[in-house]
Write a structure and sequence with these properties.
With about 350 residues, the chain is α/β, with parallel strands linked by helices. It is built from 11 helices and 11 strands. The protein has one domain: pyruvate-formate lyase- activating enzyme, CATH 3.80.30. It is globular, with a radius of gyration of 19 Å. The structure holds iron/sulfur cluster (SF4). GO terms for molecular function: catalytic activity; iron-sulfur cluster binding; metal ion binding.
């Protein structure tokens, strides 16, 4: 999902409406209330800092901002690097790198390119609705495969279905990791917290489609939100559905609330669940992370459920820097048709 230490290639050069490389700002009737700022990017590959704990070293993000509009989104603060705000601007002012495929192709053709795995969906969602308009992903996948570069994709977008045949074919040449993010099983809560995303049912169907295409499909159950989605019954039901859909593993992470996400999240609570505000303030205090005791409690709650449903860690939703599948994951050719029993882990 979203990583704090990624600022992206042009962050410092895109100050609000004076964005460097801005070609035009577009509104269309199919995307009411959304403005696309089409820019010519100078680079497509973003290098993840060496100090980062993330397993991948390179990312590609065709978009900045995300109309999926998840209230808890970890990527919201990155919009502030563009002199846009982390709230409504993040959801409605989407920066589009219109030349991302051409620039990527050029970067991958350099003799110095080391063919380390490239992760998509680590900052904003590459299959958000705008991808239906711009259709960058087929070109990105083809460019990565042509340069023999492993790739992984994490998304909430059912538009991924459009490219499954291409991705299955790509997996014959390079390691391909696929992950679907599904944090909330209850549709009413999902609509309230992630108003621009496909329903949980649609995402379960997407997991099935990924597996039917012969690809691995890890599921990110993240973030788990205290008193909203951390009940044993809710987690049990979600893990059961995810396993039944054929997921090859899960990653479960508790909510964190960094920078401007915290006041945005608390404003959402004030509106939808005022009864929880004081409890959250007490749990998170002045920090961004749930206390160690909560993480341990959640771990103890999740582990047996993950094991009971025959799920394991990760499940192929991402690759490490060398393009190999981390422990608990396996390449598509070896992935069994049903969920794999592996060492469950919360991380
Ligand atoms: S889909 Fe991902 S990037 Fe988009 S708003 Fe939700 S959490 Fe953020």
């Amino acid at each position: 999902m979203r990583w704090d230490d990624q600022r992206g290639d042009d962050d410092a050069a895109l100050p609000g409406l004076g964005m460097r490389g801005l070609v035009r700002s577009v509104r269309t009737p199919e995307f009411a209330g959304i403005t696309f700022h089409e820019v010519l990017a100078r680079s497509a590959l973003n290098k993840v800092p060496e100090a980062s704990a993330m397993p991948f070293r390179w990312t590609v993000n065709p978009f900045r901002g995300c109309t999926h509009a998840c209230v808890y989104c970890f990527a919201r603060p990155t919009h502030e690097y563009l002199d846009l705000d982390a709230g409504r601007d993040f959801e409605t002012q989407v920066v589009v790198k219109t030349n991302v495929v051409e620039v990527l192709r050029a970067e991958l053709s350099r003799a110095s390119w080391g063919r380390q795995a490239v992760a998509l969906g680590t900052n904003t969602d590459p299959y958000q609705r705008a991808e239906g308009r711009y259709a960058f992903m087929p070109g990105i996948v083809e460019a990565l495969v042509a340069s023999r570069t492993p790739l992984s994709i994490l998304t909430k977008g059912t538009l991924l279905r459009r490219d499954l045949a291409l991705l299955a074919s790509a997996a014959e040449h390079v390691p391909v990791g696929i992950g679907v993010s599904l944090a909330i099983g209850d549709e009413a809560l999902q609509q309230a917290m992630e108003p621009g995303t496909p329903t949980p049912r649609a995402r379960l169907d997407l997991i099935r489609a990924v597996r039917d295409a012969g690809l691995p499909c890890g599921v990110m159950i993240a973030p788990v939100m205290p008193w909203l989605t951390d009940g044993r019954d809710e987690l049990d039901a979600l893990l059961s559905q995810v396993a039944e859909a054929g997921a090859t593993g899960v990653t479960v992470l508790p909510l964190h609330l960094r920078g401007p996400v915290k006041p945005l999240y608390y404003a959402w609570l004030e509106e939808h669940r005022p009864d929880l505000v004081a409890r959250y303030r007490s749990l998170y205090g002045s920090g961004a992370y749930a206390p160690r005791e909560y993480v341990r409690w959640l771990d103890e709650r999740v582990r047996p459920l993950v094991a009971r449903h025959g799920l394991g860690r990760g499940g192929g939703h991402r690759l490490d820097a060398e393009g190999t599948y981390p422990e608990g994951s396996m390449p598509p050719a070896q992935a069994p048709p049903v969920a794999t029993v592996l060492q469950p882990a919360l991380f």
